[in-house]
Design goal:
Structural class: mainly alpha
Radius of gyration: 26 Å
Strand order of the largest sheet: 1-2
Membrane topology: Multi-pass membrane protein
Helix content: 55-70%
Order of helices and strands: EEHHHHHHEHHHHEHHHH
Distance between the termini: 37 Å
Strand content: under 5%
Keywords: Cell membrane, Membrane, Transmembrane, Transmembrane helix
Shape: globular
InterPro entries: ABC_transp_permease, LivM-like
Largest sheet: 2 strands, antiparallel
Mean pLDDT: 86
Main location: membrane
Number of strands: 4
Organism: Streptosporangium oxazolinicum
C-alpha cells in the first residue's frame, strides 16, 4: 500500500489519500479479451480439420452427400455474389449450373479431354454466357430481371433435349468418374470428396478476396443505392455485368463438380425447380453473408430428402413449410441467427 500526501491550497490541514494500484490490463485473464477475429479463426481452423477428417469417419454414402454439399456450395457462392452482394435477382442459376455440367460431360465424352482441364473450360463457357446475359439485361431490374432469368431456366431443358446428338437427349450422358491415383490409397468416394473440397476452398478464398477488393466495395455500393454509387464514380453497368459473369462462372464450376461426382447428366436434372431451390437455400442460409452459401448448401442437400422421408406423398409441402418456419425464426437467414439471439439476450438483460 502506498500513501500520497496533499496540502490544500487554502492552508487547511493536509489530507491523506490512499491509492491501491490495480492490476495492469495485460495481467487480466486473457480469454475475456480474445477478439471476435480470433474466435472466427479458431472456428475456421476447426472446420477445416473436421472437413479433412470426414471421409475417414463416415460411410461412403455420407461422404457422397458431403461432396454434393460442396458442389452446391460452389454454385451458391456465385448466386450470393449476384443476389446478396450486387442486389440483382436470378431465377436461372440452375441453367448456368447445367452449362458447366454439360460442358464437362461433352468434353469428356466426345473429345476425351483430361478431367483437370474440364474445370477451367466449364468455368470459361459459363463466364462468357453470364457476361452476355448481364450485358443484355442491364436495363432490367426487379421482377423483369427475374422473369428473364426464369425464362432462361425454362428454356434450358428443352434445348438440351433438342440437340441430342451432342447432349445425349433425354437419355443424357453416362461418364466415368475420376479415379484416385494408386499412390493416394483413397477410395473413389474419398478421392471425389477431396477433389471437391480443394476446388471449394480455392473458390471460397477467391470469393473472400473479391469481397475485400474494390470490386466488392463497388457491388455493395450498387446494392445499397445505385444512384449514390454512380455519383461517387462507380460504373454501374460494368460492375453489374461483372457480377453476372462471376455468378455464372461459379455455377459452371459447381456444374463441373456435379458431373465428376455423379458421373451422369440428363436434362431433367436441371429443371426450373433446381434454380428455385438454390435461391431458396441461399435466402435461408443468409443473403449477403459470407457463410450463408454454406448453410444454404446444407439446406439444399438435406432438407428435400428429409422432407421426403417424413412424407413421401407431399415432400414439396413440407419443404415449403420448413422455409416459412426458418424465415419467421431468422428473417436474415440462418447465418444471422446467432447475432439476432445475442441482441435479444442483451435487450432482456437491460
Amino acid at each position: 500500500m502506498t500513501k500520497a500526501h496533499a496540502t490544500s491550497g487554502t492552508g487547511g490541514p493536509a489530507t491523506t489519500a490512499t491509492e491501491e494500484p490495480g492490476p495492469a490490463p495485460s495481467a487480466r485473464p486473457g480469454w475475456r479479451h480474445v477478439s471476435v477475429r480470433h474466435w472466427r479463426g479458431a472456428a475456421a481452423a476447426a472446420l477445416v480439420v473436421m472437413a479433412a477428417l470426414a471421409p475417414w469417419q463416415l460411410e461412403p454414402f455420407r461422404v457422397f452427400q458431403l461432396t454434393m454439399v460442396l458442389v452446391y456450395l460452389v454454385a451458391l457462392i456465385g448466386l450470393n455474389v449476384l443476389v446478396g452482394h450486387s442486389g440483382q435477382i436470378s431465377l436461372g442459376h440452375g441453367a448456368f449450373f447445367a452449362v458447366g455440367a454439360y460442358s464437362t460431360a461433352i468434353l469428356l465424352d466426345r473429345y476425351d479431354v483430361p478431367y483437370v482441364l474440364t474445370l477451367p473450360s466449364a468455368m470459361a463457357v459459363a463466364f462468357l454466357l453470364g457476361l452476355a446475359l448481364g450485358a443484355s439485361a442491364l436495363r432490367l431490374r426487379g421482377l423483369y430481371l427475374a422473369l428473364v432469368t426464369l425464362a432462361l431456366a425454362i428454356f434450358c431443358v428443352p434445348l438440351l433435349k433438342r440437340f441430342g446428338s451432342i447432349t445425349g437427349g433425354s437419355q443424357g450422358l453416362t461418364l466415368e468418374k475420376p479415379t484416385p491415383p494408386a499412390w493416394t490409397g483413397l477410395a473413389e468416394d474419398q478421392w471425389l470428396y477431396y477433389l471437391a473440397l480443394g476446388v471449394t476452398a480455392a473458390m471460397f478464398l477467391t470469393y473472400a478476396g473479391l469481397l475485400r477488393s474494390r470490386v466488392g466495395r463497388a457491388l455493395h455500393a450498387i446494392r445499397d443505392n445505385e444512384t449514390a454509387a454512380e455519383v461517387m464514380g462507380v460504373r454501374r453497368s460494368f460492375y453489374k455485368t461483372v457480377a453476372f459473369a462471376w455468378s455464372a462462372m461459379y455455377a459452371g464450376a459447381g456444374g463441373c463438380l456435379y458431373t465428376w461426382t455423379i458421373g451422369f447428366v440428363s436434362p431433367d436434372s436441371f429443371a426450373v425447380s433446381l434454380s428455385i431451390t438454390m435461391l431458396a437455400g441461399l435466402v435461408v442460409g443468409g443473403l449477403g453473408s459470407r457463410w450463408g452459401p454454406a448453410l444454404g448448401a446444407l439446406f439444399v442437400m438435406y432438407v428435400p430428402s428429409l422432407s421426403q422421408d417424413v412424407n413421401e406423398a407431399a415432400p414439396g409441402v413440407i419443404f415449403g413449410l420448413l422455409i416459412i418456419a426458418v424465415m419467421f425464426a431468422a428473417p436474415t437467414g440462418l447465418a444471422g441467427l446467432p447475432a439476432r439471439l445475442a441482441r435479444s439476450v442483451r435487450t432482456r438483460k437491460e
